[in-house]
């Protein structure tokens, strides 16, 4: 088995954590007997922008569009290129052009990571947030009328298509079915948003008929955020629209103290296009160049990428190796009060794979 991976480190600490991610993936491939063919690309970075006046070459889709997955670092150097240019010229284009309609983030309490929630130990919190990534509240439909006058009005429409809602629900139910707890939670707000959210609920009910082995419930988004903080152990798979999912997918990792090491996938499940796997954090210009960035978010994203291409055992082994390393004070990086450098931490994860 050979998986072709496009590697895009991007900017800042993306360039420092990416080699560690690749190191661990190579170790996993060796151990589990598959091959990874890496192709490196320097675009989707501010260096590229300064040289070429654009974030990516004209033919970027041909260059990376047939890979099995894209392994991404981070983009953005706000002192050199405005963030809206760097982000919209790279990651946002990937999401749209490659129809990555799932944004997937694990929420998992890890050893060695201080949780802001009291009385929780590793293992207590372990769930997934599945966010709709292409439509919903983040539509471009709307406008401003009578600008600059007392009659100024702005309108922005929410778009929910049957195809768009059903496909994210299907992904979430499939994910729930694949887990031991076989449970799904849907985020809604059908008491206040009286057209689109009841539609979302209706499609959940309809989809659930195909998954009679999966138990499910739903919460209004306001009380759901409270439950994330007070009862995070109740969740298994949480599915939400674009806006609600955006909020939950930051809140979840924050509750486990892992926002700095959290991974994510922007996924096209049918694999018609490559999916992008990247740490949640950005390019961290404040610590770039010191060799102290935590590589765990990048490495964990690599595990999600292996899961996506079907290397389930290797993916699970990497997550386990991350836990082994995080449990040891001397192997953690400075953000987690440890003495390890970026590469010491990365090497330790590779070694822990055995
Ligand atoms: P950031 O995530 O880069 O940094 C926030 C804080 O967390 C900083 O103090 C940083 O030192 C720390 N931090 C982040 N990752 C870390 C790691 N692996 N190890 C240790 N400490 C870490 O967010 P910020 O500062 O708001 O944005 C910086 C640039 O990154 C901007 O240009 C922004 O647009 C971009 N960005 C890109 C993202 C992406 O590529 N997906 C996501 C978020 C921000
Ligand atoms: Mg966000």
Automatic annotation (TrEMBL):
Function: Has multiple catalytic activities. Apart from catalyzing the oxidation of (+)-tartrate to oxaloglycolate, also converts meso-tartrate to D-glycerate and catalyzes the oxidative decarboxylation of D-malate to pyruvate.
Record key words, sorted: Manganese, Metal-binding, NAD, Oxidoreductase
EC number: 1.1.1.83, 1.1.1.93, 4.1.1.73
Annotated ranges, domain Isopropylmalate dehydrogenase-like: 4-349
Signal peptide: none
Family in the record: Belongs to the isocitrate and isopropylmalate dehydrogenases family.
Cofactors (names): Mn(2+); K(+); Mg(2+)
Protein name per UniProt: D-malate dehydrogenase [decarboxylating]
Pathway: Carbohydrate acid metabolism; tartrate degradation; 2-hydroxy-3-oxosuccinate from L-tartrate: step 1/1; Carbohydrate acid metabolism; tartrate degradation; D-glycerate from L-tartrate: step 1/1; Carbohydrate acid metabolism; tartrate degradation; 2-hydroxy-3-oxosuccinate from meso-tartrate: step 1/1
PANTHER family the record matches: D-MALATE DEHYDROGENASE [DECARBOXYLATING]
Species assigned in the record: Undibacter mobilis
């Amino acid at each position: 088995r050979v998986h072709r991976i496009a590697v895009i480190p991007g900017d800042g600490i993306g360039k420092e954590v990416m080699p560690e991610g690749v190191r661990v993936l190579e170790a996993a491939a060796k151990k589990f007997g598959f091959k990874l063919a890496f192709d490196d690309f320097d675009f989707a970075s501010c260096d590229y922008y300064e040289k070429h006046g654009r974030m990516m070459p004209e033919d970027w889709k041909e260059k990376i569009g047939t890979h099995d997955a894209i392994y991404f670092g981070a983009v953005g150097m706000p002192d050199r290129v405005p963030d809206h240019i760097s982000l919209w010229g790279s990651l946002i284009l990937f999401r749209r052009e490659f129809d990555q309609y799932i944004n997937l983030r694990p929420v998992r309490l890890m050893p060695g990571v201080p949780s802001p929630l009291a009385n929780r130990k590793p293992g207590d919190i372990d769930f997934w947030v599945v966010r709709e990534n292409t439509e919903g509240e983040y539509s471009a439909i709307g406008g401003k009328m009578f600008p600059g006058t007392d009659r100024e009005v702005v309108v922005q429409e929410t778009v929910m298509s049957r195809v768009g809602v059903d496909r994210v629900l299907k992904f979430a139910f499939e994910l729930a079915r694949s887990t031991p707890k076989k449970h799904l939670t849907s985020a809604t707000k059908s008491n206040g948003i009286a057209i689109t959210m009841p539609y979302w609920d209706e499609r959940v009910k309809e989809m659930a008929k195909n998954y009679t082995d999966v138990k499910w419930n739903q919460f209004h988004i306001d009380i759901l955020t409270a439950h994330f903080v007070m009862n995070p152990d109740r969740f298994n798979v949480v599915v939400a629209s674009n806006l609600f999912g955006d909020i939950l997918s930051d809140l979840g990792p924050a509750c486990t103290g892992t926002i700095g090491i959290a991974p994510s996938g922007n996924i096209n499940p049918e694999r018609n296009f490559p999916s992008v796997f990247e740490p949640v954090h950005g390019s961290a210009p404040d610590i770039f160049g010191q060799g102290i960035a935590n590589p765990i978010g990048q490495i964990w994203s690599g595990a999600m990428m292996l899961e996506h291409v079907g290397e389930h055992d290797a993916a699970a082994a990497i997550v386990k190796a991350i836990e082994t390393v995080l449990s040891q004070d001397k192997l953690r990086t400075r953000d987690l009060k440890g003495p390890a450098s970026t590469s010491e931490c990365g090497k330790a994860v590779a070694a822990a794979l055995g």
